[in-house]
Amino acid sequence: MQAIKEYEKYYGISIVREFSDVGYSGKSVERPELQEMVEYLRNTDKKIVELIIYFINRLVGTYNTIFNRY
């Protein structure tokens, strides 16, 4: 996504991983990439400073469910 790449360049940050659940409803936590992202954030030895979400509605529909589940 071009906007994310521009954000990365403008702020001088490095995007370590990208996760995308194309074709899955944002209302469900049963999305492979969402689950992989949560596990990555839990288990990485890298210092995560920011989590950039391009379309917030991809997370908002499950916000309470995600944080209650994980």
List descriptors.
single chain, mainly alpha, globular, 70 residues
What does this protein structure show overall?
The chain is an all-alpha fold. 47% of the residues lie in helices and 0% in strands. The protein is built from four helices and no strands.
List the helices and strands and how they pair.
Blueprint: H1 2-11, H2 32-43, H3 57-60, H4 63-69
Secondary-structure element sequence?
HHHH
- Whole-angstrom Rg: 13 Å
Point out poorly predicted stretches.
Answer: none
Largest sheet: none
Determine the N-to-C terminus distance. 27 Å
* Strand residues, percent: under 5%
Mean pLDDT: 81
Number of discrete helical segments = 4
| Portion in helices | 40-55%
The tally of beta strands, per DSSP, is 0
Overall tally of structural domains: 1
Structural class: mainly alpha
**Shape by Cα distribution:** globular
What is shown here, in short?
This protein has 70 residues and is mainly α.
